[in-house]
Design a protein that fits this description.
Blueprint: H1 16-19, E1 31-40, E2 48-59, E3 68-80, E4 85-99, E5 104-118, E6 149-165, E7 170-179, E8 199-211, E9 214-225, E10 228-242, E11 249-258, E12 262-271, E13 274-283, H2 288-291, E14 294-305
Antiparallel strand pairs: 1-2, 1-14, 2-3, 3-4, 4-5, 5-6, 6-7, 7-8, 8-9, 9-10, 10-11, 11-12, 12-13, 13-14
């Protein structure tokens, strides 16, 4: 198996704040809203469902010049199994982007958040409810759950390098994020000191025009968390239907490989300031015996707002 203890997404390029706080504010526009939903292994009796949502904006400070301060908030919720084991995170995110030169930018980001992990016992069954012949749900479980929920804090940080040639439509990002720096306690038992391992994410993506109407969009994600790892690579191919300002329309499709686990296919549309994407996994790991090869669908939406600036506020060298 090649997934880590934390949640994961096939469309990792569409959930930037989850992988690296330094990507807060690194986009074209003033405000950005992101939503992503994943339903994994529906063919198995205990599927996983995962939601990610975020809002971020650039904070205008005139004395920063072409440097950028970004702030935002994100929500993650994951639930799995008959026990409805879930984790919900609410996280504040910030980043400062410094312009190194006309083409190069360096960002540093920090996130601080709070999370809850909980489970339910209503749908669980226990050995003590077997009377010797049949299962009897009226029998006592003889199990004592004194703590079905706990809350913990999280601290994340990251760095990102951004490159762009706006007139040629070329851009690239590469960075590293470190989540759960504080290694929060993860036990439902008061006297057990079980810690959630730190998660390191190395993320890179690019937009490379290969013809006037076709772009290549390769991306890579390498994650490590304790003994677990996730390595994903692939590319989207983007086709521009219209490049008219205010009416930009394009479609894209791509293929991805999560090493040792799944093949995935993606497709989507960009319409002006809205992006909608969909992907589907085909399981290729030994777990495919249980899933019949079915991984799971995932949908995403990104909406960006760009304000009209006055001449006094307009930057002569706008970034992103």
């Amino acid at each position: 198996m090649c997934w880590s203890q934390d949640i994961h997404f096939t469309q990792f390029w569409n959930v930037p704040l989850y992988h690296n706080p330094a990507l807060t504010g690194v986009y074209s526009g003033d405000m950005r809203m992101v939503a992503n939903y994943r339903n994994q292994w529906a063919s198995v009796p205990v599927p996983y469902s995962t939601f990610h949502g975020s809002f971020e904006q650039k904070i205008p400070i005139k004395r920063l010049g072409n440097n950028v301060l970004g702030g935002g908030i994100l929500l993650n919720h994951d639930q799995a199994g008959d026990s409805k084991l879930s984790r919900t995170n609410i996280t504040l995110s910030s980043a400062y982007t410094h312009q190194l030169s006309k083409k190069h930018f360096l960002s540093g980001g920090l996130q601080i958040g709070i999370a809850q992990r909980r489970f339910q016992t209503d749908d669980l069954t226990f050995d003590n409810q077997f009377n010797g012949d049949v299962f009897d749900e009226t029998l006592p479980t003889n199990e004592l759950f004194t703590n079905k929920s706990f809350i913990f804090g999280e601290l994340n940080a990251g760095l990102n390098w951004h490159f762009q040639l706006s007139k040629k439509g070329i851009s690239a990002d590469a960075g590293i994020g470190l989540a759960r720096i504080n290694k929060p306690r993860q036990s439902f038992f008061e006297h057990q000191d079980v810690r959630l391992a730190r998660r390191m994410s190395i993320f890179a993506k690019a937009n490379i025009p290969i013809t006037p109407i076709i772009d290549l969009q390769p991306a890579l994600l390498l994650q490590r968390q304790g003994a677990y790892s996730e390595n994903v690579y692939g590319t989207n191919i983007k086709y521009h239907l219209s490049k008219k300002t205010g009416n930009e329309i394009s479609v894209y499709a791509g293929a991805w490989h999560r090493i040792g686990d799944a093949l995935a296919f993606s497709a989507g549309i960009d319409y002006f300031n809205l992006r909608v994407g969909i992907s589907y996994d085909i399981n290729i790991s030994p777990f495919k015996t249980a899933t019949n090869g079915a991984g799971g669908p995932e949908i995403s939406a990104i909406y960006t707002i760009t304000k009209v600036q006055s001449l006094e506020e307009f930057k002569s060298c706008p970034i992103f």
